[in-house]
Amino acid sequence: MTPMTQTDPRIERIDIPLHHPVFEGHFPGHPIMPGSLLLDLVLTAWNGPIAAVPNLKFQRPVLPGETLSLCFTPAANGLTVRFSCLRDEVPVCSGLLRLPDALSSEFDGP
């Protein structure tokens, strides 16, 4: 695989189901989406190979029934993709995806 060449942001919309089963136990009486599920939604929306997630920050809880905007912005070098997940323009999580060529180049000899 070669590095990405497109640097235009890509935006996805994610509707969080009001009655997703994960909310039953996380947490009763005050349901919030687990960070692991939110990361899974990000990776599924990316829908491409990923070598690592070297940077990830959860800024605000995600509640049942919310709609999120997920923006992917590839770096000019094509080796990483910055993402941000927003609810009404307010960040709920953000991070960096390292693409496979970025990982393999770290292990190449001089």
Automatic annotation (TrEMBL):
UniProt cross-references to InterPro entries, sorted A to Z: ApeI-like, HotDog_dom_sf
Gene Ontology molecular function: any one: lyase activity
Residues in ApeI dehydratase-like domain copies: 13-94
Pfam families for the chain: ApeI-like
Protein's UniProt name: 3-hydroxymyristoyl/3-hydroxydecanoyl-(Acyl carrier protein) dehydratase
Native species: Thiocystis violascens (strain ATCC 17096 / DSM 198 / 6111)
